Amino acid sequence: MTVSRCARRNRAARIARRLGFVGSVEYRHVSSQTGGAQYGRGNTPEEDLLTVSAEAFERDADPDDFRLEALIAHECGHQRLHRNPKSRPVLARFPGEEFEEILASLVGSILLGESKSSQTLVWKAAAELTDLGATVAYAERLVERLIDILRKLL
Amino acid sequence: MMGKKKLSEIKAQLADLSAHPPGTRPKVESAKGDPQRIVETLEALCAELERVAKKPRKPKARRRPAKR
What we know:
Chain A contains seven helices and three strands; from the N terminus they run αβββαααααα. Chain A is mainly alpha-helical. The relative contact order of chain A is 0.12. Chain B has a domain at 29-55. Chain B contains two helices and no strands. Chain B is elongated, with a radius of gyration of 23 Å. The chains are: A mainly alpha, B mainly alpha.
């Protein structure tokens, strides 16, 4: 692995650990179709895998796009949702990628605390709710409510 | 997965939808299914998450020493 690839992997791993990710972090020097990062569930949390691709670093460098920490926090959100004994059965009862994506962004925003990156994940969740057909006003109310619930849950 | 939509597109989408009063909003191209049904499902999801969040955690079962 070259120095820059190694540096990218280490940077991604540092962010993931800070946000509480358990498992392995890999860097792939390829353009992906994932948006830059992907969570893979293993048999145990220690076997979970976070894959970060070159695309994540390209997006991070773009002032009009998500920061690397937001991309990683979203994936950490997936892990929290799947590994929490209370939220896991709820995900199973409400199948559909879109619901999990919304919740993962909101968990990611909680993990990031008060920051610009945190806010960007809240916007992402709100936009995805409007994609489903919700009004902006309803999406904003729902996002606040979900953040409150998820704080208690996780 | 984070998806490919850029942050600037998301901001523009929210600003555009906020700028149009209800009833005059352009149809969201990607809107999936019946909005009323989606709202009902989202409310049910919230209620379910609220219910499990309130539920106390089960204490871990203690192993009893085997009786002889």
